[in-house]
Write a structure and sequence with these properties.
Elements lengths: L33 H16 L3 H12 L3 H16 L1 H12 L8 H16 L4 H15 L4 H11 L4 H8 L7 H9 L3 H11 L2 H10 L6 E5 L6 H6 L5 E2 L6 E4 L9 H4 L3 E3 L2 H12 L8 E4 L6 H13 L2 E6 L2 H10 L5 E5 L16 E7 L14 H4 L5 H18 E11 L8 H10 L4 E4 L18 E2 L2 H4 L5 E7 L2
Parallel strand pairs: 5-6, 5-8, 6-7, 8-9
Antiparallel strand pairs: 1-3, 1-4, 2-3, 9-12, 10-12, 11-12
Helix pairs in contact: 1-2, 1-3, 1-5, 3-5, 4-5, 4-7, 5-6, 5-7, 6-7, 9-10, 9-11, 10-11, 14-15, 18-19
The chain binds S-adenosylmethionine (SAM).
């Protein structure tokens, strides 16, 4: 990072990122380098406008012409600052000796970015402080001195020393310490510890959330093999467990891959592929032609199920309540035996396309908090709240009960979440089954996952984890309707 080649005005040959300070001032005020400016704008948009960093940052980089190593710097700075926000806030507040909500929002975001550079990046302290002070001066001129003093205090200690000071090891509240050390809210630390049965292991899961995830592709069975897909890509390797996965290591935009444009493959986490394949692989007596994906948008699992269905002469009805997401499903499954409908999945028995007892296999990939995919959404951990749980768990149970009505006796339902929160996983399954008049049995999901998959627990449900499996934390329960 430090040896990033500089372009544009003020670039001096042979220097590193810190030399951006040498840029000549514009209009009498120091110019802010475009990469840091883009990072600031992205972080500010997330906090001010509820924007999503993965949407807003690429647009900002495009608009400002920031590319190559500068774009990588801006991305690391943006995503890192957003992931670490809670911990950076604790440190900045201690250094400022004032609560974060008593600091102007633009100054607050600039200080977060400055503190992230000081504590997490290989940026010289002088450059981190000076560029942030310049940024603050351009935003709130009167706050430059304050920002300078705060950042100098932040930079007096490294991250470990700050953690030691704010949450000493052996303190009476290990959850609070883990939350600060791994930059997650305490309720999420508790949720991971409950699901794993151990705070020590939860810390590994929290750490895994702070690393950018690899891009996985799904080679659609019957259309392209993973080997064919991998050889068409620079530096791609086979997935660890799923027979369809290719791991992209060469970077670049997956949307430009010809096999993806031609509908032979799609971007999909390996864990998502495994749980969809578990539904397709579950043993079934009798007909096996009518499959249902009750929560299909944007169409990742429908794409894999559609390809598997095509190989077996089956077809998939893909249901999505949001109109624009239903359109994405239709687009993602073009050429496959998938019939997309824009409907509420709870309308089984009311919608003519969703007859009771009408399906042999049903997937409920339920709307959830997404706590299992925090690696992908840097701001999500701070945006999500425990109060999000009750409406989601209600919806999950209603959708699962609709799936019980939709599946024929003897047919199989897969209930899937990309959250390991037990209220959304095992509790939702138990509650939906308890409140339904339809008899269902839990089926052990483990035989329908690759035998090489380690640490899948004692069944019958399976919870995947980034730190164990390198996948999102997907949960799957298989249920068979008995009558
Ligand atoms: C976890 S996502 C599904 C992801 C999808 N299966 C995939 O692999 O790409 C949940 C989806 O359920 C949709 N949804 C929410 N409520 C629904 C309902 N009542 N009926 C049908 N779909 C619903 C959401 O709009 C969202 O697209």
């Amino acid at each position: 990072m430090r040896s990033a080649p500089r372009r544009g005005p003020g670039a001096r040959p042979g220097g590193g990122r810190d030399d951006r300070l040498a840029r000549p001032p514009r209009g009498g005020r120091p110019a802010i380098d475009p990469a840091r400016e883009a990072a600031y704008e992205a972080v500010a948009a997330v906090h001010r406008d509820d924007a999503y960093a993965n949407l807003v940052l690429p647009r900002l980089l495009r608009e400002t012409g920031v590319s190559g190593r500068d774009a990588a710097f801006a991305t690391e700075l943006t995503y890192g600052t957003l992931r670490q926000t809670g911990t950076l806030d604790a440190i900045v507040a201690a250094a400022a000796d004032r609560a974060m909500d008593r600091i102007d929002p633009p100054v607050r975001d600039a200080l977060r970015i400055g503190a992230y550079q000081l504590l997490h990046m290989r940026v010289g302290a002088h450059a981190a402080v000076a560029t942030t002070v310049d940024l603050v001066r351009s935003l709130v001129p009167g706050a430059a001195g304050f920002a300078n003093a705060v950042l100098r205090r932040v930079g007096e200690s490294d991250r470990a020393a700050w953690l030691e000071r704010l949450a000493p090891p052996g303190s009476t509240d290990p959850v609070a310490r883990a939350a600060l050390a791994h930059a997650h809210p305490q309720w999420i630390v508790n949720a991971f510890a409950d699901a794993l049965g151990s705070l020590d292991e939860a810390e590994l899961a929290l750490d895994a959330d702070n690393l950018p995830p690899p891009v996985h592709l799904c080679a659609r069975p019957g259309l392209i093999t993973p080997a064919e897909l991998a050889t068409s890509l620079r530096g791609a390797t086979a997935g660890r467990y799923s027979p369809f996965t290719v791991v992209l290591t060469g970077g670049g935009d997956p949307g430009s891959i010809p096999a993806i444009r031609e509908g032979l493959a799609h971007v999909q986490d390996e864990g998502s592929q495994l749980v969809a394949a578990a539904l397709a692989g579950a043993g079934l007596d009798g007909p096996d032609e009518r499959w249902l994906d009750l929560c299909a948008g944007p169409g990742g699992k429908a794409g894999l199920l559609g390809a598997l269905a095509a190989q077996r002469g089956a077809h998939v009805t893909a249901v999505e309540v949001a109109h624009h997401r239903a359109a994405l499903v239709a687009q993602a499954t073009r050429g496959l035996p998938v019939y997309t409908i824009n409907a509420d999945g709870r309308d089984v028995g009311k919608d003519q396309d969703l007859p009771e007892r009408g399906f042999d296999r049903v997937l409920v990939d339920a709307p959830c908090t997404g706590l299992g995919a925090l690696r992908r959404r840097p701001e999500a951990r701070w945006r999500r709240q425990p109060s999000d749980l009750p409406p989601l768990t209600r919806l999950q149970r209603e959708l699962l009960q609709a799936a019980f009505r939709a599946v024929r006796p003897g047919g199989v339902v897969a209930y899937v979440t990309c959250s390991p929160h037990q209220a959304e996983t095992s509790v939702s399954v138990t509650e939906a089954a308890r409140r339904s008049s339809i008899e269902v049995d839990l089926v052990d999901a483990r035989p329908y996952l690759p035998s090489a998959l380690p640490e899948v627990g004692t069944g019958p449900t399976v919870q995947l984890w980034p730190h164990r499996h390198g996948t999102d934390a997907m949960f799957v329960a298989l249920l068979r309707r008995t009558a």
